[in-house]
Amino acid sequence: MRIVTFTPRSAPSSPPRAGALLPDNLHVLNFAVAVDASADVPLLAWFDLGDEWLPKARQIHDQLARNMARVETLPRGSVLTLADLALGPPVPRPGKLICVGLNYKDHAAESNMAVPKSPVTFSKYVTSVIGEHKPIRLPAASSQVDYEAELAVVIGRRAKHVPVAKAWDYVLGYTNLNDVSARDLQFADGQWQRGKSCDTFAPIGPAIVTHDAVGNPHELRIRLRLNGKTMQDSSTDQLIFGIDHIVSFLSQTVTLEPGDVIATGTPPGVGFARKPPVFLKPGDVVEVEVEGLGVLSNPVVAD
What we know:
- The two termini are 35 Å apart.
- It contains six helices and 19 strands.
- By secondary structure, it is α+β, with helices and mostly antiparallel strands.
- Helices cover 15% and strands 31% of the residues.
- Strands 1, 2, 3, 4, 5, 6, 7, 8, 11, 12, 14 and 17 form a twelve-stranded mixed beta sheet that branches. Strands 9-19-18-15-16 form a five-stranded mixed beta sheet, with no helix packed on it. Strands 10-13 form a two-stranded antiparallel sheet.
């Protein structure tokens, strides 16, 4: 299943709603209407594997995937036309956006940093989150804004003290993420928070592909294209710390909750490590593509 959030193009300021892209790629299942239009379901409840709402939505989705004619049995407004909707970030305001740094061996080498013995983590502010096609805004305070293609994990169950062997039970699915970074701010500060958390510096999307639909998340091609030119091209089989290890590691000290997002690190090819360096400029278009997760495309503009 491919979970999305959306707003009607006719009402762009309305609150985002949760749904799922249907296999025809032309329609979206509106979870709230299809399951129970009278219930006031919080948005994050649709990301919770342990709550009643997501399993009900999944059952309806799977029935439609087998036979779209079943739409006639659903309440009016249960299935919407994709062309009438604007997709937002699949988790518009994650409770936590946790990133893992230096998690590809070759990226650590190009950064002239030692391979870490345990996951190096930092966070990005929720105000950095944007969806597909929304502009990455270059702040006036930085002249060295860089790109980073990443596989992001979306948590689907409250997790605390999770053993590695059970970690997959807490994963809802995966999406593309661009860990945009102001390198001059990052390196000048001596820590990464400000340079990683500027507004619009966390494009995510276009959908959460659920864990069951991905196969082995440690065998996915990951690429980034800048104005059509491939800048990063690797595989998640190069991760130093796998997803199960990361989820377990974080849960020992942090309570993970449904809708939390974990960015798992970037492969080599980032801009600041190139000779000469390559930084984003107004007019650029950046595309992140993790195998099976679609393409996350964002233009670049001056703030």
